[in-house]
Queue: 4 jobs
Job 1
Amino acid sequence: MAAMTHYASGTVYAASAYVAWGLLPLYWRLLEAVPATEILAHRIFWSFIFTASILALTGGWRTLPAAFAEKRKLAVLLASGVLISFNWYTYIWAVNSGFVIQASMGYYIAPLVSVLLGVTVLKEHLTRWQAMAAILAALGVTILTVQYGQIPWVALILAFSFSLYGLAKKFASVGSVTGLAVETSVVTPVAAFYIAFLAIRGSSAPAEGLPHLVLLAGAGVVTALPLLFFAHGAKRIKLSTIGFLQYIAPTLTLMLGIFVFQEHFSTVHLISFGFIWTGLALYTASNFRSLQRYSHRKQGQAG
């Protein structure tokens, strides 16, 4: 019973993280009048303040020296800080520029881009099902490109920047909160300088009133809190469960794009997404089967 409760709480934590990420466009739309670069600067700055405060309160600050001690790990975290900042900027700009559907597409195809990076960079073996999944996703993107005469850059930038970020994190094994604190710390000086520059010039959003300042400061909370939920959940549930739950976020974002923000969703979009969804189904099923085989092998060795 205790194990079931532990697993159930982990599922709730992880699902809550993905729901929060999926609904994030609603928050950015509250700051629609603020330039994406300024929102990004505040998101970086307040994320660092929030995560640093958590580490200070929980004693997690003791993990920071190890992250800064190794030059290789610090370089990787610097790269991941730049990558996630670029990803955040693209996402904020996309939401407030009417590309929410493309943003959701980006996070649908991100797992498949990660597979390709695993093959090309880490020399991982690509299974037949994973290859088919990647081909189907590529077909989906191609259909959209041919029909509208332009490449869905927003989706591809989000997918590749997030997948490269995940690849960088693989080389720097630090906790999620500690990692975010270090990643934001390396770009916080730039963000703080930009915020100060805008304030001195008198063109910053907080100058327009307290509500804007509260929302901008809250960007740190809405960034870090889902990470905390995810960290708690990931410790309690299987990787296969996370594999299924991860599609909550782009699905919610897609629903927001269609039904809340009233973006155009044509038959071509549906066909394109259909290829991507089919690819994801194959990818998820392949991962699930691999995990089952691994679990059976471990049980056999234990027996």
Job 2
Amino acid sequence: MNDEKFFPATVMPDKDWWHVLWPDPDAVLSAIGIKAGMDVVDLCCGDGHFTLPLCSLVQSGQVWAVDLDAKLLDEARQACARHPNFHAILGDARELPVQIDAPVDFVFIANAFHGVPEKTALSSVVHEVLKPEGRFAVINWYPLPREETMVLGQPRGPDTELRMDPEDVRSVVEPAGFRHKEVVDVGPYHYAAILARADVARS
């Protein structure tokens, strides 16, 4: 998702350095616990860099790719055209419960959560669409100064002040009805904070 009206500072980056930064998206998806048979939402999917390997990884499972940007979503649709388990949704991530018709096992969001203005509210939406014990994975840049996160000789990623450490993610997601599971290192500058839906009343 890259509409500045909704999630600031989440514009889809140029493909050249994006592919250098994420040369093996399959490995990232496996590392965070996505497996064959899972039904998964790729929230704010962009051009489908993670969506395509996700369709292959889950095999018989279903994949919903959600984004506000019609052009980027069309790129994801074209990339995944040979996968019958792919479903494109053009719309606001905060309307997810009316966009998919059954609970899912996993919701995945990469490089957009830092720009969400109401992070606990979005997490509540994710909670609503997950199966009991379903997982929510948030991939974020480590809170390093932007000038230290270099790709192809240039500083990349969101402004330093927008970056979140894993505890920041935990503090805004857990109140929506989640419990922290683990933090996984998924790149030179990124981590995945993985939280599970807690099947208890939310505070």
Job 3
Amino acid sequence: MKKLLVFIGLALACRLLVAQTLPLVKFVPDYPFAHFENNRLTYPGDSLPMERFFSKMDSVVFLGEGNISIMHIGGSHVQAGIFTQQFRDNLLSISPDLIGGKNFVFPFSAGGTNNPSHYIVRSTGNWSYCRNAVRRETDKRMGLAGAAITTTDPMATVSIVTREKHPTSLTPNYDFNRVTVIGFSETDNVVPVVSYDSSLLQGLYDEWKSTYTFLLPDFTDSICILFDSVPGEFTLTGVLLENDMSGISVHGVGVNGASVPSYLRCHDFERDLKLIKPDLIIFSIGINDAADTGFNKSYFKQNYKELISIIQRVNPDCALLFVTNNDSFKKIRKNKYQVNLNGPVVEEAFMEMGKDYNAAVWNQFDIMGGLKSMEEWEKAGLAKKDKVHFTNEGYKLLGDLLYNALITRYIEHVQLNAKRP
């Protein structure tokens, strides 16, 4: 018994030591207009769902066992990829052995729009593109990605590379050995195949999930999807790159111009969400909802209620984290902007939803400096001239701030549980 108590004491001491060494990002230079002192997660309601998520995270961080799945969902801020990637890279820096176990991606550039920064896409042939933010295009079936590309060109291809453009020894590993292509053929005769090491691999088709799963003979960081050279049409709605190793997966799901109703229009959203079954969802949807002068807080919250009900059907224990809108301006004429007064109203809505759903809230609006602070971010080179979007440096800063807020709460969780008998 005495030996057991000594062992438990050493284990607790080890966890406290590890918690004290978990890395936080340091900020230089200082930005006096921002409220970095308020950079934290708040719990307007019960913190239990986040505590459950942190407990699952313990197994990955301290034992190197299991997987946690995080999804960051939003509009153009997320499609750009820099915000999500900075957060992801920081999170994987907790331990040198952590890897990204799953990676849900969509080949945006094949459809002629900007691709997220953390993977490279090359394509050939003719593709048409649609997205959930455009009402007239939502007759096309879309899923989790909120977008779709369609081809009738038998020579069309899509290649995906998960490594960074300029890899370093510190670049996280996203190698995979299983590929799931999500999509469908209206004529049922166009089937995707995967080119790997000069061989063409056939996939295992799941009609209910509308997926083709390919098992690769080895790990890789790149893949090419092509089609049997027969007449017909194929629509691609997502690609899941996987391995079976323990780690942390962070999926970025974002579409330019997307609002909350945009994702409610996606017929296969719930079905696809089951493929990644997130343990934590970070909501960054709202900037496009609030761009409307007729913004209605009750309608905004009702739309979120419908989206959250879908998520809770997939995983009732999924923790939720709301990111309030950034401060923004509206363009009223050339080179003339006025502040979007909906900012504080949306901030209030997110705080209310934090209480309603026992979710964490990261108050980006307040941390930035509140109303009209976007002008200061622009002057500092952190925001673009449209006073809605951020520069690469601005998005990286946001990723660092969100990571610090999450990991600070996680350290508190570890310290509190290490003191318990």
Job 4
Amino acid sequence: MSFSNPLYRLYERRLLAALSPQEVPRHVGVILDGNRRWAKEAGESAATGHKAGADKISEVLRWSEEVGVEVVTLWMLSTDNLARPPAEVRQLVGIIEQAVDRLAATGLWRIQVVGALDLLPYATTERLLEAEKRTAGIDGLHVNVAVGYGGRREIADAVRSLLAEKARDGVSIEQLAQTLDVEHIAEHLYTRGQPDPDLVIRTSGEQRLSGFLLWQSVHTEYYFCEAYWPAFRRVDFLRALRSYADRERRLGR
């Protein structure tokens, strides 16, 4: 079926109409996977794939706003990605910088950078944090851009931050060991104060988490989509939400 076909548009509208506001996830995480494979199949460069993926982001944020999602976390660059050839990493980081600048320039969304920023070039960190600062007062969709992000690194950073805080307060390791609970660590995560993700979507057909929001996703629902990220469509997004709405969430009970 052609996606410009009236029947396709009707199907899309029916998916949207079937969503109850009570069934919409508050927080959606997205693993933006498949840029390079999309480009390879199109006979294009990896950089072209990354640029096409960056262009897709604002569409997905608009779709999220449309249905009432409150927080979206976009995994744009992992700690593992930083081990790719230096030339590709430089290109990818530059594309991310431009993409985050464009998101901030809309004035629509509040940007928050999450990740191990010390792993990034200093100029990149400054540029990303400037975008975060410019959007801090926006009362709209909260968008976490996960750059230089790894789930294990986040937990390690949270523990280091907790230990440093307690040391400043004069608390010994022995005292901390007696009182430590999960909430103490949660208060030092990159996403502290935010709801945990209800739904994580991964594109490109890969069915693994790769450490995304490792701590926060203990009760998260997952949706794996065959489409590469640059080819991700509104109907794919709505199908993910329908799948989420159809599930019985036990939340560990």
